[in-house]
Amino acid sequence: MKNIFKQAVMAVGLIAAAQGAVAAGDAAAGEAKVAVCAACHGADGNSPAPNFPKLAGLGEKYLIKQLQDIKSGSRKIVEMTGLLDNMSDQDLADMAAFFDQKPLQLSGAKELKVRVNSGIEVDGLELGQKVFRAGNPSVGMPACTGCHSPRGLGNSPAGYPRLSGQHADYIEKQLRDFRAGNRVNDGDSKIMRQVAQHMSDAEIKAVANYIAGLN
């Protein structure tokens, strides 16, 4: 687990170095550039559909990186194929700034039962809270709070996104994709892949649901 935390610190430095060359985003300029995003993510970045992430308030650095990765192809999202091809780095920074200054609307958690590896059904909210706040030391999985803050608000200067209020289905899919190696844009440190590889299906579903109601 210590190695994971060390790699997280390294990842922060790499993210900052990679984004330092991009001028600060202009939210006002970004408003005119995000029209294409509205159909899936909502005009204010609050997607109504659980398969499309909410972008509002995620953190400007994180959003810039995701847009750059999608444009370059290092993060493959079929629905966004070609949509960013004609956008400059400044355009992407402006779009990120626009969405980051929008308030995120909470999705909300729900009562949930999940079946753990022993076959027993447990309270999903309790398990989700435990995973988020304490991780699972028995398998070397750190708490989510270390990078994403106790309230799930993220660490914008470090490039770690806000999680609280995000669609549970979306968070669950991202964790499964990191675990399976289908999403690999968490940097050379592989911080999210290393965390997700220790998570069971029940833990992923439970923590995604818990995060959706955090504020």
SSE layout and pairing:
Blueprint: H1 2-19, H2 27-31, H3 38-41, H4 60-72, H5 89-100, E1 113-115, E2 121-123, H6 124-134, H7 145-148, H8 168-180, H9 191-196, H10 201-212
Antiparallel strand pairs: 1-2
* Corresponding CATH architecture of the largest domain: Orthogonal Bundle
User: What fold name goes in the CATH topology slot of the largest domain?
Assistant: Cytochrome Bc1 Complex, Chain D, domain 2
CA-based shape: globular
* Distance N to C terminus: 27 Å
Sheet with the most strands, sense and barrel status: 2 strands, antiparallel
CATH homologous superfamily classification of the largest domain: Cytochrome c-like domain
Please write the string of helix (H) and strand (E) elements.
HHHHHEEHHHHH
| Topology, number of strands | 2
What does this protein structure show overall?
This protein has helices at residues 2-19, 27-31, 38-41, 60-72, 89-100, 124-134, 145-148, 168-180, 191-196, 201-212, and strands at 113-115, 121-123. With 215 residues, it is an all-alpha fold. The chain has 2 domains: 21-100, Cytochrome c-like domain (Cytochrome Bc1 Complex, Chain D, domain 2, Orthogonal Bundle), CATH 1.10.760; 113-212, Cytochrome c-like domain (Cytochrome Bc1 Complex, Chain D, domain 2). The chain has a two-stranded antiparallel sheet with strand order 1-2. Helix 4 crosses helix 5 and helix 6 (124-134) crosses helix 10 (201-212). 40% of the residues are buried. Mean pLDDT is 92; it is low at 12-21.
